[in-house]
Amino acid sequence: NLPGEFPYPIVADDNRDLAVSLGMIDPDEKDDAGMPLTCRAIFIIGPDKKLKLSMPYP
């Protein structure tokens, strides 16, 4: 439990549109519904809304 507001936004991407635009989709791995799975990754976006760090990892 955190008091006050959460310190950064959390984004839901149910249809994976954001994951596709950020290059997080693994086209060879699919879930039970046939949707491509995303890779695990960290994206840090600065206050200027520019990508500062992109780090995919297994």
Automatic annotation (TrEMBL):
Keywords: Oxidoreductase, Peroxidase. The keyword Amino-acid biosynthesis does not apply. GO terms for molecular function: peroxidase activity. InterPro entries: Thioredoxin-like_sf. SUPFAM superfamilies: Thioredoxin-like. Gene3D superfamilies: Glutaredoxin (3.40.30.10). The keyword Oxidoreductase applies. This is Glutathione peroxidase. It comes from Nautilocaris saintlaurentae. The lineage of its organism: Eukaryota, Metazoa, Ecdysozoa, Arthropoda, Crustacea.
